[in-house]
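We close this part of the discussion by returning to an individual protein. Part of our work consisted of pairing the sequence of a single chain with a tokenised description of its backbone. What the numbers capture is local backbone geometry rather than side-chain detail. The amino acid sequence and the backbone structure tokens for this protein are reproduced below.
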Amino acid sequence: MPAAHVSRVRALYRRILLLHRALPPDLKALGDQYVKDEFRRHKAAGPAEARRFLQEWEAYAVALWQQANENSQNSTEKACFGAALSEEKLHDFRDEQIGQLQELMQEATKPNRQFSITESGKPKC
């Protein structure tokens, strides 16, 4: 892999972990572990898959940055993070990815969390 690509991946990885600091502690821990696992899992991805992987994680970083900023400006309201996945996006997933998504949802919706995940179009805060 070219050095520029490796540098870009590392910078994105660090940026996401820094953005996770804005999350509630239990969501931060879950997100950090998921990011670490996913980046490790895609270390040997081919060029097309690596490009798509980076695009999706860059979009995630932008969305998280926007949500963190909105939450900091509305400090009197409960913090709200997340976004619904469209049917179109779900159809793009492989069976393995659907399984990972199911596991992530189960972990994220365990009792005693500081956040909730809903199936509606907008996150419930």
User: Anything to note?
Assistant: The chain has a mean pLDDT of 85. The radius of gyration is 15 Å.
